[in-house]
Each structure stands twice: as C-alpha cells, then as structure tokens.
C-alpha cells in the first residue's frame, strides 16, 4: 500500500461519503495546553468512519463479484458500513452477528436491508456461520480491519484531516483492530513525514501497547472497557504497519475516558462514542508530550445509546 | 426597531460571537417531508444564542455606564451570557439567581467570574435583590428578553440563518419570553417579506398560544415542561412584535419534545437542550403545513445535563 492507493480510494469513495468537518474548542485547548483539531467522523454516513473502508472494499470488487453481495461478521459500526454500502450499490449484504448483540445495533443493520445471521457469541461460531454464507452465496467477505482495501479506505480520514487543517506536529487516533490506525499511519507518513503518530488505547484492551513492547502481536492481559469499539486485537498486518510508524501507544484508564467524554459533550456539544475520546484522554494524561503543539485527532463515531452513556456521567 | 438596528447590532457583536453553522439531515428531511436547515446555536459562545442579545446590550452602553458593570436576574443561559460579556469587556457582572438553581448553572456563572447573589425562588425576592444591587453598584440592568438591545441582538441569529442558507418558505423558532422570537420576526420579515414565521411552544408553557388567541398577554394555564428554557412569559413588547408577524404558535406535547430530542441526538449527533427541539417537534406534528417546503429552524442551545437528559430517553 502506498499513497497513490489512498488517493485512488479517496476518489472512489468521495461520491458516497461526507467530507466531515474539523472542529476546535478553545476551552479544551486551554486545558490540554496545545492546539487540537478534531476530525468529526461522528457526522459521517452511518455515524462512523467505517463506511470509508467498507465502501472502498465494495467499490474495489469487479462487477461480477459485487453482484454476489457483501458479507462480514461484526456487531459494531463495520456491520452498518457493509450493510449501507450494499444498499447504496444495490446488492445484498449478509451480516453475521452474535446472538447477544444489542437490539439497537441489529435494527440499524436490518434497517439498511441486510440479511442478519445470528451465531453463538464466540469466534468459532462466527467463522463457521460466515463460511456457510460465503459457500452458499459467493458473497465477497470484507474483514473489519485485516484487509488492504479497508485500510486504504480508513486512511482517507487522516488525509482529509491533514489537507483541511494541517500541518500537524502530531496525529493521534484510537486503536482497536488497527484498521483506522494503520490507515492513519500511512496517510500521515506520506503527507507529514516529520509528524509524530500516536495511538490511544484503553488500559482495559491494551493489546497494541503490549504488542509494541513485545515486538509481536500479543493479546491484552484483560479486556474490560466502555470503549466498546476498541475490543478487537491487532492482526499481523495492522501490527506491522503500526509498529513501523507510531511513536507510542498511549494508555488511558476508564475514568480518564469518562472525563474526556464529558468534556466533548459539554464543551463541543457533539455526540460521540466512548471509543472516540480515547485519544483526547491520552493527550490530557500526557500533556508534556504535546505542549504548545498543533495536533490532529480523529473522533471516530457517534453511535451510542444515550441512556447507557448517562451511566458514565 | 428596524433592520438597520439589527445590522448595527450584528456589526457590534460579530467580533465576539461565532457565526454558527447551518446543518441539514437527509434522514430527518425524509421523515418531515420538507427541507430543514438547522441554525446550530448550541455551538455558540456559552453554548446558546443568548450571548448575542447580552453582548449587544453591553456594547450599546456608554463607556461610563459599562464601567459600573452589568446586572441581571436569571438561572439560565442569559445569566451566563451576561457573565461572559462582562468578563470579555473587563467589567463586573452581578447575577441574581434563585437559591434552588442547579449547582452546574451556578458554577458556570461563577466560572465566568460573576458575583452571584442568591434569593428566594419567587419574583418579589428576585426583583428586590436586583434593586438592591442596582442601587449599590450603579450597574446596568439587562433584562433577559424585554429589552430592545437584547431583541435586536437575538435577531442576528435569524439574519445569519437566512444569509447563509436562505431563502426559506418558513422560519420557526421556540418561544419563551419572546426575545429570540421577536428578533426572528424582525429579521425574517425584513429579509424575506413573503416567508411564514412560526413559533414553537410546549403545551406545558402555552402562554404565547393563549396570548395570540386572546389578543393580549395571557398566562399559561399550567406550567410543566422539560423545555426549561421556555418557562418565561411574553412581555407586552414581545407580544406586540410576535402577534404582528407570526402565522401561528404551534404547540407540542412532552412526548413529542422527547421524540424530537432523540432524533436530533441520533441523526444529527449534536448535543441540544430540550427547548431547542420544540420547533422540530412542531413541524413533525404539522407536516402538511411544511410539505415540500424549505424551512429554517433555530436550535437555540446545548447547555444540558446529560444525566438528566437520559431520563427522557
């Protein structure tokens, strides 16, 4: 993957996505001691950046492949991205979801017209359900993050951020499975060779932090965080990209996530998911690293149940 | 008050306020059956449009008057507006607040450096506390809405909305004491002589609806609504302006307010106060009035306790 792949992805998906705004907050800047530029993917189609990768993967298929539909396993924003991309392109979407998924997410995916297959909430059941669908339908599988088409699609987010508000001294995004983070690394390194790149990660899902230190993919020692978009684990592919480019993975506690969430709601007046604010929490915990600098952050999405959110408040 | 007063107010306050964005939502348009343009004053300084009127009143004072400070009584966004205006202009602010005001609002006002005087939660105590302050300090009283300087300041909001996204077939704003609504009438009538102007009002604070029908200022038969920015009653001045210009006052129920609130959070991903969404609720209740039309709405502010909001969810 090189920058021309990202440029092509951007041209491919531009008609289907929003060029989301970059917002600033003088009061948050005053607290952080640096100049923060927030790329607001909560305003993106489907309410999250995931449509970039999903749409790029779909548009990279041949007409014959696309005609057989799209398939994935996900209980989160990637499921919505694939369902939405399929609807826009007029093909079928087959989504495998754990049977204990929240009904609000199931309804969102069904609302886009996708065919949902439920499975037991474990990896084996998920993969076998997906395999059965692929064999039966010939649909194209789009992995949530371990896929070059997805990574170059997600890279368009940092590309827009840098084009619209850069240059930056540092760029930071959250890391889960590493699709967005890998794309952020590739776009930032191409456009701003000198900028430092950071990943923000919850202490309660710290596989990237451990992997970076071990020099190989490692699991998190425990998984427990309200940042439910970041529960997944790096793949060899995303680990390879991220470990080559990031200055560090910065960990944050649950209380720091909640405090950052309150800040974004109260000061910026926008609706964001807990996963979103992990980079802001990381900056507030590591102020000397960013002091006086111009920093680009990606706010990844806004698909959150407000009733649940109030519990963190 | 004529349009040149509004233009002068706009020039006066422009250096101190945000020209807030006008957002649209294709999914809400599909539900409403018309094309809605939301003026997002939740992104305004202090989180609400009230800074427009407060700042215009402050900047209309002579240097000698201003030096003695600003005073008002309010437990809401107007208190923050006066406190913020005073801080920006380097003078003192004296705010009378009911002793049962939420601590979050008291802290916001104190955070801007204002001197807060508590009073018993009734009109007599409030006015006597204010009178004592005015006598002692010589500060300038800025009424929350019954003041031409405040009304022309609030009028700049509809002026921006029309300049940035107009023309419109109809313009709608919420009505409480009528400062914003009066300003909206004056600006809209000047810029769009043919446009229909509506006020949205909760059934549980329906003084404007009853006043319009009675042809004189009337109290609401009962007051009980989550739209806590709309509890106040029209003055003779605001009634005179509003009754001359609005096509109608459209009432909405509490359930309709809650449903509109959910829509704005889920579809637009922005944080707004319950009072904000009364116009949207009114449109959804009266779809035939707006069918196929282009409509400008004012979202008035975003100062809301999310914990409390979740109760409406």
Which tags fit this structure?
homodimer, alpha/beta, about 325 residues, Rossmann fold, 6-stranded mixed β-sheet, about 50% helix, 4-stranded parallel β-sheet
Q: Can you give a write-up of this model?
A:
The structure is a homodimer of 313-residue chains. With 313 residues, the first copy, chain A, is an alpha/beta fold. Chain A has two domains: 3-48 and 147-312, Rossmann fold (3-Layer(aba) Sandwich), CATH 3.40.50.1100; 51-141, Rossmann fold. In chain A, 48% of the residues lie in helices and 15% in strands. Chain A is built from 15 helices and ten strands. Chain A has helices at 3-13, 26-32, 50-59, 63-67, 77-89, 103-111, 123-137, 148-165, 179-191, 207-214, 236-245, 254-268, 278-285, 287-290, 306-309; strands spanning 22-23, 35-40, 70-73, 93-98, 115-119, 140-141, 170-174, 196-202, 248-252, 294-299. A six-stranded mixed β-sheet of chain A has the order 1-2-10-7-8-9, with helices on both faces. In chain A, strands 5-4-3-6 form a four-stranded parallel β-sheet, sandwiched between helices. In chain A, helix 9 (179-191) links the parallel strand 7 (170-174) and strand 8 (196-202). In chain A, helix 3 (50-59) crosses helix 5 (77-89), helix 5 packs parallel to helix 6 (103-111) and helix 12 (254-268) crosses helix 13. Chain A is globular and about 55 Å long. The termini of chain A are far apart. The relative contact order of chain A is 0.16. The interface between A and B is medium-sized, with 16 and 17 residues.
């Amino acid at each position: 993957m090189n920058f021309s792949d990202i440029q092509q992805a951007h041209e491919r998906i531009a008609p289907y996505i929003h060029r989301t705004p970059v917002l600033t907050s003088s009061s948050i800047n005053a607290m952080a001691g640096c100049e923060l530029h927030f790329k607001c993917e909560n305003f993106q189609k489907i309410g999250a950046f995931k449509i970039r990768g999903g749409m790029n993967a779909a548009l990279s298929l041949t007409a014959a492949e696309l005609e057989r539909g799209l398939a994935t396993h996900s209980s989160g924003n990637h499921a919505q991205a694939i369902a939405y991309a399929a609807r826009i392109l007029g093909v079928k979407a087959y989504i495998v979801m754990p049977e204990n998924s929240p009904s609000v997410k199931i309804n969102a995916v069904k609302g886009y017209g996708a065919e949902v297959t439920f499975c037991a909430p474990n990896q084996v059941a998920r993969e076998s359900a997906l395999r059965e669908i692929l064999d039966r339908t010939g649909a194209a599988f789009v992995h949530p993050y371990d896929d070059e088409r997805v990574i170059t699609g997600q890279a368009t987010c940092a590309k827009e951020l840098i084009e619209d508000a850069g240059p930056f001294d540092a760029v930071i995004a959250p890391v889960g499975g590493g699709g967005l983070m890998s794309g952020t690394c590739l776009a930032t390194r191409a456009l701003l060779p000198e900028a430092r790149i950071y990943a923000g990660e919850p202490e309660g899902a710290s596989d990237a932090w451990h992997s970076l230190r071990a020099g190989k993919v490692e699991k998190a020692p425990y998984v427990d965080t309200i940042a439910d978009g970041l529960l997944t684990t790096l793949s060899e592919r995303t680990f390879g990209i991220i470990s080559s480019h990031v200055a560090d993975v910065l960990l944050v506690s649950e209380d720091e996530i909640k405090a950052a969430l309150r800040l974004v709601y109260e000061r910026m007046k926008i609706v964001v998911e807990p996963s979103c604010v992990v980079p802001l929490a990381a900056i507030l915990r590591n102020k000397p690293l960013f002091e006086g600098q111009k920093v680009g952050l990606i706010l990844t999405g806004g698909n959150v149940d407000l009733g649940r959110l109030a519990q963190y408040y």
